[in-house]
Amino acid sequence: MVKHKASPPAAVRRRIGGAGASAIRWALRVATSIVAWTLLLHLFTFLGIPRPPLPIARPSCLGGRSNSTAANSVVAAGEARHLAPPALPHRRLYKSNGYLLVSCNGGLNQMRAAICDMVTVARYLNLTMVIPELDKQSFWADPSDFGDIFYVNHFIDSLRNEVKIVKELPQKFSEKVPLSMQPISWSSDKYYLRQILPLVRKHKVVRFSKTDSRLANNGLPLKLQKLRCHVNYNALRFTPSIEALGNKMISTLRRTGSFIVLHLRYEMDMLAFSGCTHGCSDEETEELTRMRYAYPWWKEKEIDSEKKRLEGLCPLTPGETTLVLKALGFPRDTRIYIASGEIYGGEKRLAVLKTEFPNIVRKEMLLSDDELRPFQKHSTQMAALDYRVSVASDVFIPSNDGNMAKVVEGHRRFTGFHRTIQLDRKKLVELIDLFEDQELSWEEFSVAVKELHGGRMSQPTRRRIIPGQPKEEDYFYANPHECLGPAKKRRDRLKHMEI
Predict the structure, then answer these.
(1) Where are the transmembrane segments (predicted)?
(2) Distance in angstroms (rounded) separating the CA atoms of residues 238 and 220
(3) In Å, how far are 118, 317, 350, 365, 390 from 345, measured between CA atoms?
(4) Contacts of 397 (CB under 8 A, 6+ apart)
């Protein structure tokens, strides 16, 4: 006789059935919560509101895991939150008065300053700004776009609480011919409010075809000056590839201790443009003169080279720079990074400098051919690498006061008044000539050079203002004193800001 297993009592069957139903209800609640959170996050993103924090795992009070395991979960959650990207600033909501197109002109640092100015103008006039176009027509003929040099998404996101920036014009304006114009140089905020805003409202789309030095150094509201700094030192971040290679070079240079950067602006374009030919042969002088006449936008053609040099308007030659470095007391084994393009005259012209300071390096010596290959024929991207190293150096010494010299100096002030030696070229060439004519001994020359530059090491100071002569007064981006608080407070602030 086959025995059958006894069926469970009815009460037990009811308990089993109840447990199954509870499990189903619990699963439905979990699924509903997940869907609700997902919809909520999408809604916050759509409205531009910072996302609410996700629930963090807590140590279980019901057992099943050890206290250490539960604690590790909390630590892991904290680390994940630390590694997560920072919350985006609230989007500023405003009625746009029109679209601003910007065509930058010049080299990297001239365009960098111009972008800061144009963002500030767009914010002040409540415009929508389109990602700037970079100069592709000048001497360098660099085909790089904005996104090849700067991190586009970071640029847009970090300024969303100030101004709306789009990657291209909306479709309805794509076939509209914008009003093209050049704002007046060194203009005040009132000029843009009274002269430019009515034009934008009328035409809806305006293009600035020239952007260099179109905003005054001084006399602007404090909030606009601080916005220029925010764009320059926070929003304009280089692309990850440029940042990575720049950091690699800085790390390599740091392995052997401190290093200085010499911005040796002794390149063919600078010499041709400025007409500075001191130390050049007759053949080189003729070549530079032909080049100057070949470029119609270089308006000054007939130039007295020696007169300009004595006025301090020429870059120091590599030989003159060598004398100055020695006189300032830099030891022979100083690690010197040369930030520049190709030096006119090549290795021959650098021979004296290398003899006195043999520990000289350039980016080509710090990076492999494979690493540099994507940057070849892109002078603006190469200049971005030099910029990163220059800002990070222990001492920065420019041989000329061009755009890079000024913008890097201002950046170094912002990050803690790091030393930049502002060479007084007018007095230096007088001293150099006296020394070379044996009218000064080496000791007298060295003492004079040191005394001359004792107060030219980027100490905190205010910009020199010359009413009616904006070209002659101190440049905003060389010394943005409105943005420079006490050094300690600024360092504390920079701990939370990636420059």
Answers:
(1) 26-49
(2) 28
(3) 38, 11, 8, 19, 23
(4) 260, 261, 262, 263, 325, 420, 421, 423
C-beta separation of 256 from 275 below 8 A:
no
Domains of the chain plus CATH, in order, are: 98-234 (3.40.50.11340), 240-495 (no CATH)
Cα distances (angstroms) measured from residue 62 to each of 19, 30, 70, 245: 19, 19, 11, 51
- Longest pairwise C-alpha distance within the chain: 132
386/414 Cα distance (integer angstroms): 18
Amino acid at 406: K
For the stretch 214-224, pLDDT in tens is 999 999 999 99
Global pTM?
0.80
Q: What angle do CA 262, 325, 396 make, to 5 degrees?
A: 30
| 158-180 pLDDT tens trace | 999 999 999 999 999 988 889 99
